[in-house]
What we know:
The protein is of the alpha/beta class. It has helices spanning 15-26, 51-62, 73-77, 83-93, 106-109, 118-124, 140-144, 161-169, 180-188, and strands at 3-8, 32-37, 68-70, 100-105, 125-131, 149-153.
Amino acid sequence: MKFCIFSGTFNPIHNAHIKMAEYAVSDLGFDKIIFIPAYKPPHKNYDISMCIHRFNMVKLAIKDNTHFEISDIEYKNECKSYTYLTVRELYKQYEIDSKINFILGTDAFKKIESWYKTQKLKKVIDFIVFIRENENVNFDYLKKKGYNFKFAQMPFMDVSSTYIREKIVQGKKITGLVTKEVEDYIYRNGLYKNT
């Protein structure tokens, strides 16, 4: 199985996240994309009460795509969500043809050397780095340090989780930025009103 993981805070998951995963299936040939909502993101402040909501929203957003799956691996641990530890567990759980691939954006990849056990991490995964249209990036220095990666470029979608949360605080609609199910879930649970 050609296998790729998409880990993140997903606070909330939005349509650009979905498009990235769809691109990984259609253009990069992955059989399975495993979404892994971080329980306690190590590089971000987090609201513990939002953990289950973030998980539920990812589940709703991906439910109709047979190539997508959600993992609660980081929720079971209930500790900081370190990619290296998660990946080690995934190798035990799944039959994987070669190395696990890992989706992330350029902002996250720039910080990869600060990640937990990064020297071990770079040996067990290959990175799929999504770059924005017309974004100039040079990660040759990481290639020389042994990080295996390839770039993926898809049409730019001007949306972020921060932007969505801000719109909700301002009382503005988020229709078209998230799936209908996620939008309904956010309003039904009164999420992000005081972000």
